[in-house]
Write a structure and sequence with these properties.
- The protein has an eight-stranded mixed sheet with strand order 5-4-3-6-2-1-7-8. Strands 9, 10, 11, 12, 13, 14 and 15 form a seven-stranded mixed sheet that branches.
- By secondary structure, it is an alpha+beta fold.
- Helix 2 packs antiparallel against helix 4, helix 2 packs across helix 6 and helix 13 packs across helix 14.
- The chain is built from 14 helices and 15 strands.
- It starts with 12 loop residues before the first helix and ends with a helix.
């Protein structure tokens, strides 16, 4: 057989990068993707800094992980970079660092020092303006005296990595980037990042992930708090029968682990503050349903993946559904790790279970019965975290639902003249039992009391469009 002639067609750098900026990231998902890399590098501390300075504003994510040498750092800037991923790592596609960064900014600088004796400080920079000009896949190898000021002095004598985003054209979309509205929006973004990281990495923050120290994340110096969607600290939370379902995929069969919980009726929460905190960023109705984890990292928070409709009477049902990367193809995980689709084989197994969980949640909601006592804890396999009885194993024969934020929490403010202080701004009130409710909290509590949280969500969405200043002043 004759050998066919081939012609190599190299993608145009300028046009390809413009397309890759639109892979579905918003700011909080983009930051979470960088934090994924920090977690994979064994970091125990991650610091997110959001700095406002008009067009010179920047966002920085730094960690104390293993760091990278020159070769690894250069390869990290290659789209579709290849390396070996272990089973518990969050990355998989070789796109995260570049795509997450350029989705928000025009210039990304990464400075890193490997965890090795005598390791040198390495720095690389991807500049979209330069690529637009030369139309080539080029990055800069920065010398120490060329480092941007916000990256200097952070890794002196220590291992770790610093990622700096400058030219925040996708974040600061305002005619007056130095104006008060632009500053308030960036502060609001900082709060969203705080809330989102507290939800997505809540198992890591709470020290629930096997074989690793608890993770500490700060946003502008303020520690991010873990938000447990299942309210396991509430004595009246009911942990129902666990289920293991075997699901086929291209990479071989894998186990999906289900841990259903029914939260207490409002009258059985330890306090009204705890009830409000448990409601989640989208309020009770839209927080019901599945919480889908991949390698202990939350991908989807709430929603029934089209297995049933959202229902006021089922709002207390929340189900942990976790899988590992061998099932990525079956779940259709996207590059941004922000959405999944349930495999059809799994949907068939879940249909009767969802009906049963809904009936239990309905009974608790109507107070026809007290929530059953939580079953005893059991020892689980490595990488699986929950508190409930031994699972039923099901073998299958064979929803993309994106609620994705973290609820506000009470935390002390940390001020700094160089940082956007999202705690001191007053955009949202962090209420406790002893403090008066803000307008937002009062409205949300009243809506929840009469079962009209969905209506309030629609009203606030319209208010953000019609009068964004008013919405922002109320905390939305």
């Amino acid at each position: 057989m004759a050998v066919r002639k081939t012609i190599q067609v190299v993608p145009r750098a300028r046009r390809t990068l413009t397309s890759l900026r639109n892979l579905g990231y918003d700011l909080r998902h983009a930051v979470a993707d960088i934090v994924d890399n920090s977690v994979s590098a064994g970091a125990t501390t991650v610091k997110v800094t959001v700095h406002f300075d008009g067009t010179r504003s920047w966002i920085r994510i730094s960690d104390n992980g293993r760091g990278m040498n020159a070769e690894t750092l250069t390869e990290a800037f290659r789209y579709g970079s290849e390396r070996e991923y272990n089973r518990t790592e969050l990355g998989r596609f070789g796109f995260g660092l570049k795509s997450a960064s350029t989705s928000q900014c025009r210039r990304v600088t990464v400075v890193s020092r490997a965890d090795a004796p005598g390791a040198a400080l390495e720095a690389r920079q991807l500049d979209l303006d330069h690529i637009d000009q030369v139309d080539k896949w080029e990055i800069f190898d920065l010398a120490p005296d060329e480092l941007p000021e916000p990256t200097r002095s952070l890794l002196e004598g220590t291992a770790g990595t610093v990622v700096l985003w400058e030219g925040l054209d996708r974040v600061l979309r305002f005619q007056d980037p130095f104006g008060g509205w632009a500053k308030r929006q960036l502060i609001s973004h900082a709060e969203d990042i705080d809330e989102h990281l507290g939800m997505v990495f809540h198992r890591f923050l709470a020290g629930e992930v096997a074989d690793r120290e608890p993770l500490r994340i700060t946003v502008n110096g303020t520690p991010v708090e873990s938000w447990d969607p299942f309210c396991r600290s509430e004595s009246s939370t009911s942990a129902l029968q666990e289920e293991d379902v075997e699901v086929p995929s291209q990479g071989g069969n894998g186990i999906v682990h289900l841990s259903p919980f029914v939260l207490p009726n409002q009258n059985h929460f330890s306090s009204q503050a705890a009830w409000r905190r448990a409601s989640g960023p989208k309020s009770w109705n839209r927080q019901q349903g599945f919480y889908i984890y991949r390698a202990d990292r939350l991908i989807q928070s709430g929603g029934w993946c089209r297995l049933r409709a959202i229902d006021e009477h089922a709002k207390l049902a929340r189900i942990s559904l976790e899988f590992f990367p061998e099932l990525d193809s079956a779940f259709g995980v996207n590059v941004a790790k922000a959405s999944v689709t349930l495999p059809e084989e799994l949907r068939q197994e879940l249909t009767p279970l969802v009906k049963n969980w809904g009936r239990v949640a309905d009974a608790v909601y109507r107070q026809k019965q007290q929530p059953p006592s939580p079953p005893p804890r059991r020892t689980k396999p490595s990488g699986v975290t929950s508190a409930s009885p031994a699972p039923t194993v099901r073998t299958s024969t064979g929803g993309n639902d994106p609620s994705f934020e973290h609820v506000s929490s009470s935390k002390p403010a940390t001020s700094s003249p160089t940082l956007v202080n999202h705690r001191d701004l007053g955009a949202t009130s962090r209420a406790s039992d002893a403090a008066p409710l803000s307008a937002r909290q009062a409205l949300e509590a009243a809506a929840a009391q009469v079962g009209e949280s969905e209506a309030l969500n629609r009203i606030t969405s319209a208010l953000r469009t019609m009068s964004p200043e008013m919405a922002h002043g109320l905390g939305w």
